[in-house]
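Following the same procedure, backbone shapes were mapped to integers, as reproduced here:
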Amino acid sequence: MADETVSAPTEETAQPQRRGPRRGPRGDRDRRQRDSGGEDRESEFVDKLVAINRVAKVVKGGKNFGFAALVVVGDKKGRVGYGHGKAREVPEAIRKATEEAKKTMIRVPLREGRTLHHDGRGRWGAGKVMLRAAPPGTGLIAGGPMRAVLEVLGVSDVVGKSQGSSNPYNMVRATIGALKAQVSPRHVANRRGLKVSDLISRRKDGASLGEVASEG
């Protein structure tokens, strides 16, 4: 009978195989899916830079200059927020303002996803704004910081008018205040113990939803 020779384990076979990151087409595809998922979550928000100012802090040795940014953020589906950030560089100030805006977002009820349910007014300091619901095809009639807020909110038929200060900070806060006062027919009906159809019929008779809500 022939002698069976057993080969000594080599260095490659003696050491256990280490499992590293998956390579190849499948691993690349999984990595791309994870990366795209993060981008999709970030891309659901739209941000607009409203104002950028250079600010100075007086210290003992002179002045330290920086930048202040005002940014509005929304998802164009009824959510909007604003933020203010300061930093030595412009990109960092915008980043801080964007992060703050995402934390202070509010949800605004929209009518048919295109306009407001009723007219509204907002005021902050010397800034005064008026927002009016509009029929289809009117478009977004507003300017300046107010238009930026309404664009990221997602409305397409609204008439806005600024009646006070043109300071962007006051205008943005006044516009957000007017949007916070918006109420939906369902909310008013639940509060007053009525049916939504009753409120809709009263609106057709000439009374606005804001007047109906103030009666309760």
